[in-house]
Design a protein that fits this description.
About 55% of the residues lie in helices and about 5% in strands. By secondary structure, it is mainly alpha-helical. It has a three-stranded antiparallel β-sheet. Strand 2 and strand 3 form a beta hairpin. Helix 8 packs across helix 16. The longest helix is centred in the middle third of the chain and has 26 residues. The site of s-citryldethia Coenzyme A has 22 residues, from helix 15.
């Protein structure tokens, strides 16, 4: 798994070198986040993720990613009030949520709803930077409302209107459960949002920048990014991790034996491995602590015990470390969230990164267009159809 230090090997003067999956290729310059795959470090705009997780809220991180510095209290209050004012959905979008199949995957519903939002935003195709900041705020503010409304509608419940106060974490959990979250739950959820906000040029962020680089619009770019994040090799892994943990719990399987069996069958263990990290994902380490904290508070240690046994077995058997998705699942599950919502929560948070990257792309745009090595045939001539 290449790191940013090995780029030199990938290019030569006479021709670009083929890099499957663009592994190790630097496609853009960015000031938003840096990952040190060897040290297991992640920084947003110069701040270490541990410092941000402990001392800031998600709205402060959104502001940091979009504006380059942490907000003052006055700036944060104004930003929060603006986001709060944008939480309600256009009624036609709520109508879409009422009519999609109840068993549709929440990520497919989110992708559809964000795309529909664009139809009712008169600024959708405006390219001015100020308009793009307003759209970024609107999309970020409305995605929690989409997720919570769909979850309640599929259960036969009425959507809960968003609050005109409170943090994004508080408001989301309130809309989901129709009751205010406890302080600990809100704080843990807010840290989860901080941890998932940005992460270099991951597949969904790359997708958003590719779409943005053609000068398409923000709704198209975020809808495309949601599509990319949905995949099991990317954001969809957290739901698969929970599926594995529930399977272990329901069958009473020994976690170590369960993992060894699947490895022996050549299966991948979701929540492990990373294209850039060659060591523990720092976000996983922070989330692991939260799984333990939630388990101790609940007096039910099994999820922490299962994840610890799997982590140790993977290290022994493969040397592969966990990534952010391995512990986020059991964190959300212990907060009472349904596993098929986990990736939409990832998308909620990563909307901050996607939109910040789009603004950065548009500030110095160049169409993103890599090459393909042609391995097909040459010099063929058409045979008339009657002779084929
Ligand atoms: C996210 O890019 C980002 O920053 C993403 C993300 C973000 O914040 O945006 O961090 C979020 O998407 C985290 C990753 C979530 N995905 C998973 O947990 C899915 C399981 N993991 C993998 O499939 C894999 O590790 C990837 C896709 C994450 C990375 O794959 P690479 O870099 O292409 O590595 P690879 O597939 O070439 O694997 C290298 C070797 C292989 O062995 P060989 O076939 O060469 O013998 O490691 C093995 C793989 O088989 N391997 C695994 C494994 N991951 C890699 N073996 C078992 N289980 C795994 N999970």
């Amino acid at each position: 798994m290449a790191t940013q230090d090995t780029v030199a090997e990938l290019t030569t003067d006479d021709a670009p070198v083929k890099a499957p999956g663009l592994e190790g290729v630097i496609a853009v310059e960015s000031e938003l986040s840096f990952i040190d795959g060897q040290k297991g470090e992640l920084i947003y705009r110069g701040y270490d993720i541990h410092d941000l997780a402990e001392h800031t809220t998600f709205e402060e991180v959104v502001y940091l990613l979009r504006h380059g510095s942490l907000p003052s209290q006055a700036e944060l209050d104004e930003f929060r009030a603006h986001l709060q004012s944008e939480r309600a959905l256009p009624s036609p979008v709520m109508d879409v949520l009422r009519n999609v199949p109840d068993d549709a995957h929440p990520m497919a519903v989110l992708r559809t709803a964000v795309s529909t939002l664009g139809l009712y935003d008169e600024e959708a195709d405006m390219t001015e930077e100020a308009a793009n900041h307003r759209k970024a705020d609107r999309i970020l503010a409305q995605i929690p409302t989409i997720i919570a409304a769909f979850d309640r509608l599929r259960k036969g419940l009425d959507p809960v209107s968003p609050l005109d106060h409170g943090s994004m974490a508080h408001n989301f959990l309130y809309m989901l459960n129709d009751e205010a979250p406890g302080e600990a739950a809100e704080e843990i959820f807010d840290v989860c949002l901080v941890l998932h906000a940005d992460h270099g040029l991951n597949a969904s962020t790359f997708t958003s920048r590719v779409i943005g680089s053609t000068l398409s619009d923000m709704y198209s770019a975020v809808s495309g990014a949601i599509g990319a994040l949905k995949g099991a090799l990317h954001g969809g892994a957290n739901q698969e991790v929970m599926r594995m943990l529930l399977d272990i719990d329901e069958t009473g399987a020994d976690p170590a034996g369960y993992v060894k069996e699947r490895l022996a069958e050549g299966e991948r263990i979701m929540g492990f491995g990373h294209r850039v990290y060659d060591t523990m994902d720092p976000r996983a380490a922070i989330l692991r602590g939260m799984v333990k904290e939630l388990s101790e508070e609940a007096g039910e240690m099994k999820w922490y015990e299962y994840t610890s046994a799997i982590l140790e077995t993977m290290k022994e058997e493969t040397g592969i470390d966990p990534n952010v998705d391995f512990f986020s699942g059991s964190t959300y599950y212990q907060l009472g969230l349904a596993p098929d919502l986990f990736t939409t929560i990832f998308a909620l948070s990563r909307t901050a990164g996607w939109t910040a990257h789009l603004l950065e792309q548009w500030a110095d745009n160049r169409l993103i267009r890599p090459r393909a090595q042609y391995t097909g045939q040459h010099n063929r001539t058409v045979t008339p159809i009657e002779e084929r």
